[in-house]
């Protein structure tokens, strides 16, 4: 518990008090946001706002986690290091994308296939360590079974070692790619994506702590409902560190944003969220915990599909969904707060379902 509280507090203090220094530095380096001409006109005033703020979030999260562990006299676990791997790895992909945009002053950074390649490299590295680092009881950080709130019994290795291994890597890639892209697509308004990410990742601090208290080999009662997770408490610690970093960053990212987290932040947060779901055996539950990201991403898919089918017609005035409501006349802060409410309700539903499964599962 001490490591969890320390990690969250230190990362929060880092972003809350040191972000202004990064804002000054990014202005000096001319890392300013490029704004699309075809987007909402109200966004044009954001042109030049320092971007790549995800760098601050990543630094704060890593420093908060390792300092919290040091204070508690503990060594980092492989599970937490895997979350950091996913976060930093996708943060690098996002940073390259952001850097190209700011350097070339254009809306397109990395091409679609280049992003997918970067996500694939991170997914393969993640899978290699996640399935190859068992503890003394033989429990690996990730499971070969598809999980909802815990393992379902549907084991991908039943297709054989070669095919099963390929399917596992593809499954990890799908989760990491979908989640990082979902957070990235949602990052279009001041504070929107970071606020929703705080709630979703904060939920995994709660889930990890609960799984630790109800870990197999630790509980006496409700043994049938215990959790066989590699490092549940450490997953809670790294989730708390990322949540704290996000809260401190939101202070500076709220409307009007003084710094934008960019693809560096959105992709790294999406990677961390996917990693937490995989390692806590709650992969399908992520659809509910990250419900806002699913809705916003779905709006883009629907818009594009409908546009192609009808040869030019649209469902929304503009996608992603938050821009549709802006063009309908909603103030930016109104869209953000209402979407936060949706995100919060979705997260609460996910935690509620997680708890109900423990009671009645």
Automatic annotation (TrEMBL):
* Cellular component terms (Gene Ontology): plasma membrane
Per the database entry, which stretches of residues form a coiled coil?
none
- Name where it's found: Membrane
What main location does UniProt list? membrane
- Membrane topology annotation: Multi-pass membrane protein
User: Which key words are in the record?
Assistant: Membrane, Transferase, Transmembrane, Transmembrane helix
Family of the protein in this entry: Belongs to the glycosyltransferase 4 family. MraY subfamily.
The protein's name is Unannotated protein
Give the organism's phylogenetic lineage: unclassified sequences, metagenomes, ecological metagenomes
């Amino acid at each position: 518990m001490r490591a969890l509280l320390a990690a969250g507090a230190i990362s929060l203090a880092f972003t809350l008090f040191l972000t202004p220094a990064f804002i000054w530095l990014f202005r000096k380096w001319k890392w300013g946001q490029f704004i699309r001409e075809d987007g909402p006109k109200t966004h044009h005033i954001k042109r030049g706002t320092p971007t790549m703020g995800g760098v601050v979030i990543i630094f704060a999260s890593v420093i908060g986690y390792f300092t919290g562990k040091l204070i508690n006299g503990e060594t980092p676990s492989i599970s937490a290091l895997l979350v950091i791997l996913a976060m930093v790895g996708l943060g690098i992909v996002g940073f390259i994308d952001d850097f190209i945009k700011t350097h070339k002053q254009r809306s397109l950074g990395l091409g679609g296939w280049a992003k997918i390649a970067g996500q694939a490299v991170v997914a393969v590295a993640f899978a290699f360590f996640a399935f190859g680092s068992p503890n003394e009881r033989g429990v690996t950080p990730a499971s070969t079974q598809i999980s909802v709130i815990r393992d379902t019994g549907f084991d991908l290795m039943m297709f054989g070692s070669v095919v099963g291994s390929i399917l596992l890597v593809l499954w990890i890639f799908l989760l990491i790619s979908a989640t990082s892209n979902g957070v990235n697509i949602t990052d279009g308004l001041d504070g929107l994506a970071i606020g929703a990410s705080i709630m979703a990742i904060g939920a995994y601090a709660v889930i990890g702590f609960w799984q630790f208290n109800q870990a197999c080999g630790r509980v006496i009662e409700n043994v049938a409902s215990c959790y066989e997770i590699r490092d549940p408490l450490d997953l809670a610690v790294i989730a708390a560190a990322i949540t704290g970093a996000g809260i401190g960053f939101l202070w500076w990212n709220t409307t009007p944003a003084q710094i934008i987290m960019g693809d560096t932040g959105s992709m790294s947060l999406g990677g961390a969220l996917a990693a937490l779901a995989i390692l806590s055996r709650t992969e399908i539950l992520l659809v509910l915990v990250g419900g806002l990201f699913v809705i916003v991403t779905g709006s883009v898919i629907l818009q594009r599909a409908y546009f192609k089918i009808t040869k030019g017609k649209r469902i929304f005035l503009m996608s992603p969904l938050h821009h549709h409501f802006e063009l309908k006349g909603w103030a930016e802060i109104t869209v953000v707060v209402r979407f936060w409410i949706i995100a919060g309700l979705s997260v609460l539903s996910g935690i509620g379902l997680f708890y109900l499964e423990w009671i009645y599962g």
